[in-house]
Amino acid sequence: QKEVEQNSGPLSVPEGAIASLNCTYSDRGSQSFFWYRQYSGKSPELIMSIYSNGDKEDGRFTAQLNKASQYVSLLIRDSQPSDSATYLCAVRYQKVTFGTGTKLQVIP
Amino acid sequence: SAVISQKPSRDICQRGTSLTIQCQVDSQVTMMFWYRQQPGQSLTLIATANQGSEATYESGFVIDKFPISRPNLTFSTLTVSNMSPEDSSIYLCSVEEARLAGGQETQYFGPGTRLLVL
After folding, report:
1. Distance (Å, whole) CA A70 – CA B104
2. Cα nearest neighbour of A31 on chain B
3. pLDDT in tens, A49-65
4. Chain A: residue nearest B4 by CA?
5. Which letter does DSSP use for residue B111 in this model?
6. How many other CB atoms are found less than 10 A from the CB of residue A50?
7. Does A49 contact B112 at a Cβ distance shorter than 8 Å?
8. Distance (Å, whole) CA A60 – CA B116
């Protein structure tokens, strides 16, 4: 069983729409949760971190965490073509484990 | 966050040779890691680079194939030894730091080294 699971996509959304990216994890003791964005040919870039249940907003990005259901999501409002990238979910239990990533395509 | 640089940014190597990748951080960090990302795949942790002691390797990775040095808190090297085409990958250096005093540790990545083995 994978420790951190993401739908590989691609997830296609029209420009201006809300993109919703989901991630589930297996270790109930996980304490820290991260979303990284990775453009093709580039290294991962941290965009959001969340540590407690609920929502955390940063500009157009909102991270949502539900520890009881063991899922974390990332919402991107007013999606732009420049948001087209692979989004990696990462979860820290004893160490950080990365999901396989969801490829997002924002269609102009 | 810390600024991380890696050298070389890319290389093309012949089978059987070795390549050493350098990672330099602009501030002292306790934790440094080396990851591999094969084409179309996610990140796989190779090892944790420990300052002043042997690196801690993940399952499937051995010191003879991936020797790591960590002479101080700002620098580390990863060597890919006796390379084969299967070693073609992106190799990423990562550091962990707390953004604020008492904050949660977060990992940041260097720009990566793109390796092609022929």
Report:
1. 20
2. B104
3. 999 999 999 999 999 99
4. A43
5. -
6. 21
7. no
8. 37
